[in-house]
Structures are given as C-alpha cells and as structure tokens.
UniProtKB/TrEMBL annotation:
Entry superkingdom: Eukaryota
GO MF annotations in UniProt: nucleoside triphosphate diphosphatase activity
Entry keywords, A to Z: Hydrolase
NCBIfam families named in the record: maf
CDD domains tied to this protein: Maf (cd00555)
Cofactor(s) listed: a divalent metal cation
Identification of the protein by name: Uncharacterized protein
C-alpha cells in the first residue's frame, strides 16, 4: 500500500514517539525510515473519565505525540510527521495495562483463560501546517482485535511469567513470542495485538500524503 509513497516518505523526518520495541520492529519491517524519540508524557489519565477504552488509548497516544512535538518543534530540522500510540487490553469493562509485578501478571493472565478479550490500540499522527509547528493537523484512529485464550494450568502461567516476557506488555502477554502459545484464536489485526494496527496506519498515511 505504501510502495508508491516510499520515495517521498524517505525524504521526510518521521518520528515514532514510543520506546516500544514491537512498534519499532513493525515499522522497520515495512521499510519505513524513522527515528525513535520516546515520549515522557505521564500516562496517568483517569480511565473513568472515558466512556470507551478506545477513547482512552487515543487520548494517551495524543499526549505522547504532543509532548514529543513540543520538544522537537524548534529543531533545526523539525519533524514532518510524529506518531504516537498506546495499547490496552479490555475485558468485563476493565482496562488492563502493563502488570506492576509477577502476581499482578498472574491475576491478569489467569482471568483470560478460556475467554475472549479485546485489544485496543490508539494512534495519533501529527503533521505541521506549512512546515510550522505553531499549527498542526491531528489524525487519530483506533483498532480493536478480539483475542481468545486457551485453558492452561496455573503452573504453565507462572512459568510463562518467569520468562519475563509479560512484564513490559499491555495485558501481560506478547502474541508474537511465547505468549502466542496460550492463544487459540484472534479476530482482527494481528499487528494490533502486538501494539500497532499496521493496515490502518498505512491507510491513513496514504491519505495524509495524497490529500
């Protein structure tokens, strides 16, 4: 989808406002040239202030992107595009982010057994108007993917947690690695579960650079 634009995108200063190695890998794998500038935005929005989880992740993604935009706006060569993103797991009207410790991870993963939950990722893309970051355009979207876990015993869950894989991931698991062995099925974008909805990103990127 992006191939006709790659020559133009290669001339742009594109910034990923996230330290997530999964998001970095997804974008690298499609050949996009970008730099990583992790956001220092404090992710402390009140979940109860949002009617839907996807509004919560979009607002968090916006906060991340805006913080980086403020820092880089006065660079000798400011960015042409800043990408912010945030991911959560939701089930039973509860939002799950990264586990705080191993016991928290165990409680989270145990609750998924034999059930489906939804992974939401919000993405915000900022572009300056006429190259000036005093004013800019905001493109915001989200994706939701339903994930179904198999039934496994507590010992298997604890041994998975002991690998350390769950501790830096929203919802406490990684579909792209050992956590994928716990999953019996998904409905939606696989890359969204990793933390970045690739197809929707490409679709909106095309719109930004062809409109």
């Amino acid at each position: 989808m992006l191939e006709p634009l790659m020559h133009r995108l290669a001339t742009q200063r594109i910034v990923l406002a996230s330290g997530s190695p999964r998001r970095k890998l997804i974008l690298e794998n499609i050949g996009l040239k970008f730099e990583v500038v992790p956001s220092t935005f404090e992710e402390n929005l009140r979940k109860e202030d949002f009617e839907f989880p996807f509004d919560y992740v979009k607002e968090t993604a916006k906060g991340k992107a805006l913080e980086v935009a403020k820092r880089l706006a006065k660079d000798a060569r400011p960015p042409d595009l800043i990408i912010g993103s945030d991911t959560v797991v939701t089930m039973d009207n509860k939002i799950y982010e990264k586990p705080v410790d191993k016991e928290h991870a165990f409680q989270m993963i145990s609750s998924y057994m034999g059930r489906s939950h939804t992974v939401y990722t919000g993405v915000v893309m900022l572009t300056p108007k006429k190259g000036n970051w005093d004013d800019f355009n905001i493109t915001s979207f989200h994706a939701g993917t339903d994930v179904t876990f198999a039934e496994v015993d507590s010992d298997t869950i604890r041994k998975y947690i002991d690998t350390g894989e769950p501790m830096d991931k929203a919802g406490g698991y990684g579909i792209q690695a050992a956590g994928g062995t716990l999953i019996s099925g998904i409905n939606g974008d696989y890359f969204n579960v990793m933390g970045f909805p690739l197809h929707l990103f490409a679709k909106h990127l095309v719109q930004i650079y062809t409109s």
